[in-house]
Amino acid sequence: MFLTHLHLKNYRNYAELDLLFDQRINIFQGNNAQGKTNIVEAIYLLALAKSHRTAKEKELVQWGQSFSVIKGTVERTMGNVSLEIQITDKGKKAKINALEQKKLSDYIGAFNVILFAPEDLTLVKGSPQYRRKFLDIEIGQIQPSYLYHLAQYQKVLQQRNNLLKDFSKVKKNKLEMLEIWNVQMVEHGAKILDKRLKFLKKLEKRAQEVHDGITEGMENLNIYYKSSIPLEKGLETESDIRFQFERIIEKYMPLELNRGTSMIGPHRDDLDFYINQIDVRSYGSQGQQRTTALSLKLAEIELIHEEIGEYPILLLDDVLSELDKKRQTHLIKTIENKVQTMITTTTTEGIDLIHLNHSSNFYVSMGK
Ligand code: ATP
Ligand code: MG
Predict the structure, then answer these.
(1) Any idea where the domains of the chain sit in the sequence?
(2) C-alpha distance from residue 213 to each of 172, 310, 331, 350 (Å)
(3) Which of 90, 183, 207, 239 has the most other CB atoms within 10 Å of its CB?
(4) Cα 193 to the chain's mean position, in Å?
(5) Are 95 and 73 within 8 A, CB to CB?
(6) Gap from CA of 26 to ligand 1 centroid (Å)
């Protein structure tokens, strides 16, 4: 798929902007604080109906304005799709071909992007929350139903935590209430975990191939899902997961009442990365951690293609110049002639322009 046109109105530092993109590589060059990432953010927003930088949508509206509009035309094999996000004081509207989509899970999936930003380089090293977010965003793009279960799970989790926190002031029927939340937590949590495990299995295979290529067969990458729910090898179907989750949640209830928070479930899970059987987070070099992050991102591109039959769009915000020549070459080989790519950078120095075969250059200055 390709993004052919982007229109911004009152968005961040853009009063009004219309851009036509090349189907291959588009480079946005400019000094700091000119509006490069704002463009990347707008494209990300069109795909996922939220910003990668902020949860406060009000920040996206240009200062002094009351609304913001982001529109895009996406060329897909089944035809053109027009997408629109409107942000006002009253909230956000998301439209596909001018039809409002009330549920986020109905909107997401029409347009797929993979974003690779400097903070992704810390995917391996950063906090577990970051790795969970990575899983949630990428699975949600391929399977919008995942987002439904995730939203339900988060609702239940919050209610359950409120109840656990307040338990000292408890009346009797609160224990019954807790049991009800348990049932719902297991219901949605088992779905989430099942989908995460299936996704990861496919992602790992792809990531291994990429990693193998970058390291010329010297390093073998493994990704493990660290679940707070004990799962036995071979017993990982959705019903196995549900069964185990039910058991452990009952077991942990006294402790959870004591601590006042939910201690078991996908919201507590994490990923571990190993290179040649050594834990990359604890022992990997910075280069190995970066290569792992890059392998994951490139693996996702292939995985989305495998799942939906089309390549997503790649957004590289300030990262290309951060990669050494070998990694750049690998990235370029992956995207060449098939993945539309938007690259932002302050300078083209350190970027392998010859092999990049870039096609459109944009110069960004003060929101223009
Ligand atoms: P860098 O190279 O440092 O990453 P950049 O070109 O990516 O810079 P952006 O993050 O895209 O910069 O843009 C930042 C600019 O946008 C800043 O000048 C900031 O003041 C401006 N800005 C951010 N939000 C708004 C807003 N709501 N209204 C108007 N301007 C805004
Ligand atoms: Mg930036």
Answers:
(1) 1-112+310-368, 128-289
(2) 60, 23, 11, 22
(3) 207
(4) 16
(5) no
(6) 19
The domain defined by 128-289 folds into Glutathione S-transferase Yfyf (Class Pi); Chain A, domain 2 (1.20.1050)
221-226: strand order across its sheet = 221-226, 270-275, 278-279
The set of protein residues with a Cβ atom below 6 angstroms from ligand 1 is: 12-13, 30, 32-38, 59, 61-63, 318, 346, 364
Residues with CB under 5 A from ligand 2 (ion): 36-37
Coil, strand, or helix at residue 83?
A: strand
| DSSP H or E run through 116 | strand 113-116
Q: What is the ipTM of this complex?
A: 0.99
Q: What is the pLDDT of residues 158-213, one digit of tens each?
A: 999 999 988 766 566 778 889 999 999 999 999 999 999 999 999 999 999 999 99
Report which ligand 1 atom has the smallest distance to the Cα of 60.
27
Axis crossing angle, helix 173-214 with helix 286-308, rounded to the nearest 10: 100
Contact 239, 187 (CB under 8 A): no
Write the CATH number of the domain with boundaries 1-112+310-368: 3.40.50.300
Q: How many Å apart are CA 266 and CA 149, to the nearest integer?
A: 11
pLDDT in tens, 17-64: 999 999 999 999 999 999 999 999 999 999 999 999 999 999 999 999
